[in-house]
Each structure stands twice: as structure tokens, then as C-alpha cells.
Design brief:
Blueprint lengths: L13 E2 L7 E2 L7 E5 H6 L5 H4 L6 E2 L12 E2 L14 E2 L2 E2 L16 E8 L3 H4 L6 E7 L7 E9 L3 E11 L6 E13 L6 E16 L2 E14 L8 H4 L21 E16 L4 E21 L11 E28 L2 E20 L3 E7 L18 E18 L2 E18 L5 E17 L5 E12 L14 E12 L6 E18 L7 E19 L4 E16 L16 E10 L8 E10 L2 E2 L7 E2 L2 E11 L10 E8 L7 E6 L2 E4 L4 E9 L1
Subcellular location: Cell outer membrane
GO molecular function: siderophore uptake transmembrane transporter activity; signaling receptor activity
GO cellular component, one term: cell outer membrane
């Protein structure tokens, strides 16, 4: 089995995310979680963030909407342009612009979603120290199959999808896969809806057992997406003299509310095995993304007007187009030196992108009364800022050696990266350049007991470029992070289960902080730390029962800042604990044969509401449920038909998911009900 193959059931044994080679999870000296297709389907995930709800170290329920997928990994993340999105697809980084142009991949086209927690720069270049979310596309299949699904639900949901695949030629050398999806659904906020059209073709050519070429295409059109905006803590999280702000309240303007996104990608994955020692791989992808954003949002720094029920607002807009090419060349050598086995990986990675940005500043909009909102009052469109073009090129050289001696598995790797960003002002013809480089590495060891027990320890580093300059005009240096991690994994032979516990300590330096001597500028004097413990268990205990459990404890701290009052404070919007449990039971026979019941519970812990930790977002407990019925079990004439109903936040809890300031909080998603009828043949 390889790291791109479908996972039978809920428990994976092999992944390529942690090493870029097909490696057993037990032999990777870092925490890796694999969310297979079966789990995505069981839980009816409609976004990659949804699929991560039962994964340790991950907080993905930060806000409602499909504009961006804001994911926090081991405490590191952000909002808006600073958000950490699922950023790796088929081993290559997705493209991202400077404002709202970010790629979001619908999970209907994915075979698995994987999370490598902790620094990943040694293989992928610039990345958050908290980790990466890596997605694997559905690939052509050797066995023919066809599936169609119709879906409805609350909020006027209407959805249709198909998934086709199989061999093209009798000898199986050519095979195909074609996925498609159309969706339209309202959101819990007035005037807001989401629409999506997805098409993902794939073609595989296998002239012999040693040569594989897979062409991967992708098109996604989001003609309307939900930008519901944020709300002040007073009225949502806390009582207000004017009353509570309703969850369905829309703080924007119906006539000036748009987020249109079109994405197109074409690429390939090529592999050729010369002999028992040498294998070469090349992954290449071209991507294009167009976005149009128009929105009105509450002034989070001063949300209230003259009276408590009036909210001050501002408008902004942007148009952005990004073109990018991602390339990863790999040479793998498998050999032995005496008793030591080696898997050497040498690689050259490149990503180049060009972003054309036409955006506005912020303009005033008449305030709105959240108790009796009046919309469509006239306001002036904010003026355009100078149009810019950003050319960004990133090159990385990396090497890794996976050594095996008896029960020991040792991984050592290093990578040198160069990053060059040119920004041109098309109005003034001025330009700026930011040139960064960094070396990152990882060393780790695992002891593999015959019983399936695998204690491990590792040390890894990462970097991220920091865009901008200080008051002196000097460009910022990249942030650097280092992590120590130790843990134990357990995957007994012959049993369909996986258990892991890990402890980690991450420190990040060169973090931007407010310049105390020069307002509106920053200095790189900050440092932050994230420590925690994670637990994950997934198992198929019998032919009938599946279990998934996860626990996370996080201790995040600001260690240095130009503002002494912020030292010792927790990270914004990061829960101190996360707990989840999912159980899925299939009735094995009798009158209930074909029926499956599932339920889940998610506990999201308390989080800081602003950098000063002046208030907290309280913990919340949410319940999910699902029922599925194989109609063929009741009537052989209905073989292939399946019906299902899923409910997230079953009891429709109204809660605040996260805040980034006293004027910036997000309600969590209310009850979502999805009913599907599918046929597979």
C-alpha cells in the first residue's frame, strides 16, 4: 500500500506526508493523523475543516463560512489573510495571494486528509510551526465503479454529486477517475448563501509495473460564498444593554456582499523505478485563481456607535488573480551499508507565483441597529489603493536519510530554502524586494517493538517569511521555530487499530510586535511558546463497531513582546483543551441488517478572546449524530442504494466559537442536517 491509496476502513498504516516516502506510521518520528475517505463519508464533512473535527492538535471550528478555512495547528494559526489553510495537495503547495485569494478544496474530490503536526519545513519549505494539512486527491481505480448522490437538508440545501472510475483499456494500462459536485445552500446568517461547482478529472497511464503517470485536473467555481463577518463580544458573548445579537444577524450590506472564487489546476504525478535501488519522481502543477471580494464589516477596534445598539461599519473590496507553478523533483535510493538499511531521498522543490491585486482601503458605511437592522442605505465605495503585482519565487534543496538497524528507525533530514518576493506598484512604477533564506532540519528516532509498540523522539525546525519592513525600511527576517517532541505509537499486527500519545514543546522567534517608538510599525522582538499533550485512538473493534477518540491539552504563552503587558498571555482563539469521541455501529444481521448508527461528542475548551486576555470564550460541548441504511439489505432489488442522515451540533447550541478582539467574535455553526440518497454500481 502507498500513501495515496484508499484506506480500507478508518485505520491507515502507511503515509507519505511525514517523509515523502511510503512509510509506516509507526516509523515516522513525528505525530501524523490520517483521515480516510470512510471517515469523511461517515461524518458527511462538507469542508476539509469539517473532516478535522475529531483530530488531535487541530482547531478548525473557528468561524462559519467557506471563504477561508482557518485552521489552528498546535496553537498556531490566524484569521483572514493570516489564516493557516490546508496548504498541501498531492505533495505540492497550493498558491495563495496577498489578500483574499486562497485556494479552498472541496473534500468530495479527496481520498484522504492528513495532518503532520509540528514543523514540516524540512520537506515542504516555509510552513507554520504547528504543522501542515496535506490532502490527497482521488485517483483512477483498477476496478470499475460508478456512484451518484443526491443531497438535501436544512437551510434549503440542494446538492448533487457523482464519482466515476475504472480502467479504459482491457489490459488496465489506462484508467480514469471523474468527480463532480454541485451545491447550493443558505447559511445561518440572513442574506448569506454558498454555491459551488466542482469537476475533478484524472487519467492514469501505467505502461509497465515500474512506471506510473497520473494526470490530475481540478476546477472549482464558488460564484457566491458566505462572508458573514464578525460581531462584538458585547451582545454575542456577553449581555448588552440593547439585548443579544441574534445568530442570524447580518452585519453587512446585501447589495455589497460578494466573494466569488474560481480555481483551475492541471498537473501530474510521475514515478519511474529503475531497479531495486533507484526511483525518481516528479510532481508538477499549474494553478490559477481569480477572486472578487466586496464586503461590509464591523469596526472591530471600535464597534459601537453613540448608543449601544448601533454598530459602526466599514466597507472594502478587492480583485485578485494569481497564477502559480509548483514543482517537486525527487530521487530515492534504497540500499544497505552493512547491517544498516537506508532510504535516501534527494529533492528539489520550486514554487513560483504572480499575483495581480487591485484593492481598496476602508470606507465608512452608515451604522446599523442590530435590534432592527435597516439595509441598503447609500454609502460611497472606498477608493482603490495603488494596484500591485507580486512575483514570488521559492526554491528548496532537501535531503533525507531513513535508516533502519534491527528495531531502530532513525530519520535525519535537512533543507535549504531561498525565497524572493518582488512587489511592483503599477501606479507609481515603484518596487520593493524581499530576499530570504533559511536552513531547517529534523532528526528523530523510533524503536519498533515486535508487538507494535513504537516509542519515538524528534527535534525539528521551521521557518516562515514575514512580509513587510520596519520603521527603518529594512525588510523583516523570517520567523524561526524549533520543536522537541516525544511520544509512543501503538499499532498491533493483525488488529485494525492505531493509538498514539505525544508531548511537544515549540518555540518561535522573530515574531512581529508593535514598535513602541513608532506607531503603525512593527519590530521583530517577539517570541512565543506552545506546549502540549495529544492523544489519538482509532480502531475497528469488530465487524460492527468503529471508534475514534482524540484529546489535546495546549499551554500557549507569549514569551517576549514589545508590550510587557502581553508577556505571559495565551494565544488568541486557541482552546486550552479539545476532546472528541466518535462511535459508529453497524447492525450485523437480523431485522436491522444494513442499518448503521453513529454519534459523536466534541468539547472545545476555553480560549482567550483578545491578545491581552481581558476576556475568555467559554468552553462548549457539541453533539453530532448519523444514521445510514443500506437499502439492499432489505430488498436485493435495491442493491447499491444507500440512504443517510447526518446532524452536526444536533441540539442546536448557540455559542461563540472564537474571538480575536473585543469587537471581533464569531458565532459557531448551528444545527446542520444533511440527508443523502446514493446509488453505486
Amino acid at each position: 500500500m502507498t500513501g495515496t491509496d484508499p484506506v480500507p476502513g478508518l485505520v491507515a498504516r502507511v503515509s507519505a506526508t511525514g517523509t515523502k516516502t511510503d512509510t509506516p506510521l509507526l516509523a515516522v518520528p513525528q505525530a501524523v493523523s490520517v483521515i480516510p475517505r470512510a471517515q469523511i463519508d461517515q461524518q458527511a464533512a462538507r469542508s476539509v475543516g469539517d473532516s478535522l473535527r475529531y483530530t488531535p492538535g487541530v482547531f478548525a471550528d473557528t468561524r462559519v463560512g467557506g471563504v477561508l478555512e482557518s485552521v489552528f495547528l498546535r496553537g498556531f494559526g490566524g484569521f483572514a489573510a493570516g489564516a493557516t489553510n490546508p496548504q498541501i495537495l498531492d505533495g505540492l503547495p497550493l498558491v495563495k495571494g496577498g489578500n483574499w485569494a486562497a485556494q479552498v478544496i472541496d473534500p468530495s474530490v479527496l481520498e484522504r486528509v492528513e495532518v503532520l503536526r509540528g514543523p514540516a519545513s524540512v520537506l515542504y519549505g516555509q510552513a507554520s510551526p504547528g504543522g501542515i494539512v496535506s490532502m490527497v486527491s482521488k485517483r483512477p481505480t483498477e476496478q470499475p465503479f460508478r456512484a451518484v448522490t443526491l443531497t438535501t437538508g436544512n437551510r434549503n440545501r440542494a446538492e448533487a454529486a457523482f464519482d466515476l472510475g475504472g480502467p479504459i483499456t482491457a489490459d488496465g494500462r489506462w484508467a480514469y477517475r471523474l468527480n463532480g459536485l454541485g451545491r447550493r445552500v443558505d447559511t445561518q446568517v440572513d442574506f448569506s448563501r454558498e454555491q459551488r461547482l466542482v469537476l475533478a478529472p484524472a487519467l492514469a497511464w501505467r505502461p509497465d509495473d515500474d512506471t506510473h503517470l497520473t494526470l490530475l485536473g481540478f476546477y472549482q467555481n464558488d460564484p457566491h460564498n458566505n462572508f458573514a463577518g464578525w460581531l462584538p463580544a458585547e451582545g454575542s458573548l456577553f449581555p448588552s444593554p440593547a439585548g443579544r445579537i441574534r445568530r442570524r444577524f447580518f452585519p453587512g450590506e446585501p447589495g455589497f456582499d460578494a466573494y466569488d472564487r474560481q480555481q483551475a489546476m492541471i498537473g501530474y504525478a510521475f514515478e519511474h523505478r529503475f531497479d531495486e535501488t533507484w526511483t525518481v519522481r516528479q510532481n508538477l502543477r499549474y494553478a490559477h485563481i481569480d477572486t472578487r471580494f466586496e464586503g461590509v464589516a464591523i469596526n472591530y477596534f471600535a464597534p459601537f456607535g453613540a448608543i449601544a445598539r448601533l454598530l459602526e461599519r466599514s466597507a472594502s473590496w478587492s480583485r485578485e488573480a494569481v497564477d502559480g507553478v509548483s514543482l517537486d523533483n525527487q530521487t530515492q535510493a534504497d540500499f544497505a551499508t552493512g547491517p544498516v538499511g537506508h532510504t535516501i531521498l534527494l529533492g528539489l522543490g520550486y514554487q513560483g507565483s504572480r499575483a495581480d491585486v487591485n484593492a481598496s482601503g476602508f470606507g465608512p458605511v452608515p451604522p446599523i441597529d442590530f435590534t432592527a437592522p435597516v439595509y441598503r442605505r447609500p454609502f460611497a465605495l472606498p477608493a482603490a489603493l495603488p494596484r500591485t503585482r507580486q512575483d514570488w519565487s521559492r526554491v528548496g534543496l532537501y535531503a533525507q536519510d531513513q535508516m533502519r538497524l534491527d528495531h531502530w528507525a532513525v530519520t535525519v533530514g535537512g533543507r535549504q530554502d531561498w525565497s524572493l518576493l518582488d512587489t511592483a506598484n503599477r501606479l507609481t512604477a515603484g518596487s520593493s524586494r524581499q530576499d530570504d533564506e533559511a536552513f531547517t532540519g529534523r532528526v528523530g528516532a523510533v524503536y519498533l517493538f515486535d508487538s507494535g509498540l513504537a516509542p519515538y523522539a524528534s527535534y525539528a525546525t521551521s521557518f516562515e517569511p514575514t512580509l513587510g519592513t520596519g520603521f527603518s525600511g529594512a525588510p523583516f527576517k523570517p520567523t524561526h521555530a524549533r520543536q522537541t517532541e516525544a511520544g509512543v505509537k501503538y499499532q498491533p499486527p493483525g488488529l485494525d487499530s492505531f493509538v498514539a500519545v505525544s508531548g511537544f514543546d515549540i518555540t518561535q522567534d522573530n515574531v512581529a510586535a508593535a514598535d513602541p517608538a513608532h506607531p503603525f510599525y512593527s519590530v521583530q522582538t517577539g517570541a512565543v511558546r506552545s506546549r502540549g499533550i495529544e492523544f489519538e485512538a482509532r480502531a475497528t473493534l469488530s465487524d460492527s463497531l468503529d471508534l475514534i477518540g482524540a484529546y489535546t491539552y495546549l499551554d500557549t504563552t507569549v514569551r517576549r513582546d514589545s508590550n510587557p503587558a502581553l508577556v505571559g498571555k495565551r494565544f488568541v482563539a486557541v482552546p486550552d483543551q479539545l476532546v472528541s469521541l466518535w462511535a459508529h455501529y453497524r447492525f450485523p444481521g437480523g431485522p436491522l441488517a444494513g442499518l448503521s448508527l453513529a454519534g459523536g461528542i466534541r468539547v472545545i475548551g476555553r480560549s482567550a478572546g483578545d491578545p491581552a486576555n481581558s476576556f475568555s470564550v467559554p468552553a462548549v460541548t457539541l453533539v453530532d449524530a448519523a444514521i445510514r441504511y443500506d437499502l439492499g439489505a432489505a430488498d436485493p432489488g435495491l442493491a447499491g442504494w444507500q440512504a443517510s442522515i447526518n446532524a452536526a451540533n444536533l441540539f442546536d447550541r448557540t455559542y461563540v466559537a472564537s474571538c480575536f478582539a473585543a469587537g471581533g467574535c464569531f458565532y459557531g455553526n448551528g444545527r446542520t442536517v444533511i440527508a443523502s440518497l446514493g446509488y453505486r454500481w
